[in-house]
Amino acid sequence: MYNGIGLSTPRGSGTNGYVVRNLSHVKTMSKKIQENQDGKQYKSRPPNKDITQHDLKRKIEVECMELQLKLEEEGLSQEEIDLKVDAMRQAKLKTLDEAKPRDAKSLQEHETHLIQEAKKLENQKLARAFRIKENHVEGAAFDRDLQRQRREKRRIERDDELRRQQPRQRRNTRD
């Protein structure tokens, strides 16, 4: 027995006496973890558009630099190199706004804002596929008080609807 846990002796217990923790136990999150000091729930920050644009422009510049080095090795004049590099840069910058975000799995670890943006789009697609409403609150299904209030509200609405329909039915039967 260690720290008062387990068997004092494994004899006659049919076990070896080894204490294993319960891996199937699910711990509930405390309110302190779920809410910040203001009482608001934590939300992840949205991806910063400026940073994502900067990363994409930086990649374009890297491609332009690679083209420039390749053309210099081929022995072209500086004016021709500048024209070709500028043409490529302008073409890439035009498509920059129209470019679709890549899949989150194909992005590298340091591209956090691009990953966030791709993940946001992926979550929106998934929400549309599962028909999750925009006003959905995570964890609301486990809030018993909220569910009780919603049930009561639906019951009242049903009762009101039935009351409105009963006079109509009486009028129809009298005719």
Structural class: mainly alpha
Topology as H/E string?
HHHHH
Poorly predicted runs of 5 or more residues: none
Number of helices: 5
Query: What is the alpha-carbon Rg in Å?
Result: 32 Å
Mass-distribution shape: flat
% residues in beta strands: under 5%
Largest sheet: none
Mean pLDDT, rounded to whole units?
A: 81
Query: Number of DSSP strands?
Result: 0
Distance between the termini: 85 Å
Query: Helicity, in percent?
Result: 55-70%
Summarize the topology:
Blueprint: H1 31-34, H2 49-74, H3 78-96, H4 112-129, H5 144-174
Keywords: mRNA processing, mRNA splicing, Nucleus, Spliceosome
Family: Belongs to the CWC21 family.
Main location: nucleus
Structural features, described:
The chain has a domain at 49-99 and 110-133. It has 175 residues and is mostly helical. 3% of the residues are buried. It is built from five helices and no strands. The longest helix is centred in the C-terminal third of the chain and has 31 residues, at 144-174. The protein is flat, with a radius of gyration of 32 Å. The protein has helices spanning 31-34, 49-74, 78-96, 112-129, 144-174. α2 (49-74) runs antiparallel to α3 (78-96). It is 56% helix and 0% strand.
